[in-house]
Every structure is written in structure tokens, then in C-alpha cells.
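Limitations

Structures in this collection are predictions, not experimental determinations, and the ligand pose is part of the prediction. Treat each record accordingly. The example that follows, with beta-D-glucopyranose as the small molecule, is included so readers can see exactly what is and is not provided: the inputs are given verbatim, and the output is the predicted complex.
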Amino acid sequence: MARIALGIDIGGSGIKGALVDLDAGDFATERLRIETPQESTPANVAAVVDQIVDNFADQLGDGPIGLTIPAIVQHGVTLSAANIHPSWVNCPAEKIFEDALGRDVVLVNDADAAGVAEVQYGAAKGHPGLVIVTTLGTGIGSAIIYRGVLVPNSELGHLEIDGHDAEKRAAASIRTKEGLSWSEYVPRLQRYYETVEFLFSPDLFVVGGGVSKKADKFLPQLKLRTPIVAAQLQNRAGIIGAAWLAVDKGENPDQLR
Ligand code: BGC
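Predicted complex:
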């Protein structure tokens, strides 16, 4: 029987869930998307997550549930809120979800989930070295994975580069907001990736987020010694990674929670 878990990706505009077949590394069902509540407080978001869980409850049974959130998540507590409602800062979020759903969940950072999915099933599948996955979206998310093991909660989107919070210069949303052409945007990505390369010497960069669909517009222009490739799982990565991490946490419980 296939190993199944539910992955739910909590984003700024939508909350999306699907059952994931962990052997295939892909969705086992259609994806259900519900708008993120206008006021995206933990309680309001938990109510939507509850609806999504209900939708898949019959097929999921008592299978694991993984949730992503665009925030630092240390032992179930959300510690930041760069592009989400401020009430997530210092919030016992995992417990709030568990109380709302009446069952266990595993809450993880969105980029960590996407990164794990790319290493397990996507562009960095089976990579034996140091992989840094970055997601270019509203902000910049990052996942550091060494020999298949995630170092959780890296926040490389917030490196200070040339006096700026990096994501405020190089996130995909900034290109749109400032109306930058690709030739204006590429130098910002160059500065970003050369800084991360100098600090970490990764063996591979994977670039995710919606803009990775247009990778041919910017990846070939970047001058780095590290190979840099587009993510493969696109907008499925968060859900698949959340499901994978939920299973992993079940097998290797958080000793510090
Ligand atoms: C947040 C990260 C998140 C990333 C992508 C950043 O602003 O600080 O926690 O992973 O955006 O959503």
C-alpha cells in the first residue's frame, strides 16, 4: 500500500492541500484551494485548514498532516512574520492547529518544505552534497540541505546585502512591483547568489517560486561557480515537502518540543 500523508501549504493568497503519495513523490488527489482569510490570524487560518482536512479525512484516516507557513517555526512555535499577519510572531501555532483539528500536525517553514521536496523528488533528487534551495516569490525563502538532511529555518532571504534586506531587492515580487526588466533584475540576483555562494559554498543551488517557470530569462545570465538549476516541482513542492516532513517527524520525533 502506498504511503499517504496530507500536505497543506499556507500562503498569503491561498491555502492549498492535497493527499501526497510519498512513494511516487506526487499528489494522490486533486488539490483543494481555499482563499486565505483577509485577516490571516492563526485562528482564522486554522478554521480554513480544518475545512481542508475534513475534505480529505476519509482517505487520510489517521495519516500524518504537514503544514507549511512562511515563518520561522521552531519546535512548533512561529517566531517571525515577514509577509504574514503580525500575530504569528511568538505564537504556539502548531498547538493552535492541533486544538482546532483535534489531531496532531507538523508545522514547518514553507521554503524548508519546498527544499526537502526538491531533494527527495525533484531537481536535487538524491544529491549527496550541500544543496541550497531558494524560493523567489513575495519574499525569498531558503532551505539548506546537506546530504539529504535539512538544517531547518535558515532565513537567507533576510541576509543584509549592500545595506538592504536581500528579499526587498531580489524577490520576484520586487521585479513586478518596481517594473524591472530582466536585464535590470538579473544583477540583483547575481549579487544575491554570489553572496550566498561566498558564505556557504554549496554544491548546488535550486531556484523555486513562481518565477522559476521563466528560469531561462535569468539563470543562464548568472555567473557563479556553483551549478544553479530551476526547481522541478513548481507549486506542488510545498505540499509534497510538508507531507514528507510530517512522516519524517512521526518517525523521528522532535526531542525538544
Ligand atoms: C520569510 C521566510 C519564508 C520566505 C518565503 C520570508 O520573508 O521570512 O520564513 O520562508 O519569506 O515565503
